[in-house]
Amino acid sequence: MSQALVCSAPVQPPRSTFSLAGAGSVLIGFTAACVVAGTLIGWAVGSLGYGLAFGAVVGVPVGVAVTVIRYRNI
Q1: Distances (CA, A) of 21 to 24, 26, 29, 34, 41
Q2: Number of domains in the chain
């Protein structure tokens, strides 16, 4: 009786897709988008400075939240 020997490459664990550059890009991108949106809204209602400040105050937690949601399971 002969037995067949099956040789296969060792199984590698899946690589993590987390990258600091990607997480930083998501954070900066969403924060900047909120700042721009706040500035445009402020400009539309006649107070550019308040719109910029409001966009920054809202943008930081939004950027952090989106980054956490995006990279939560990694």
Answers
A1: 5, 9, 12, 20, 30
A2: 1
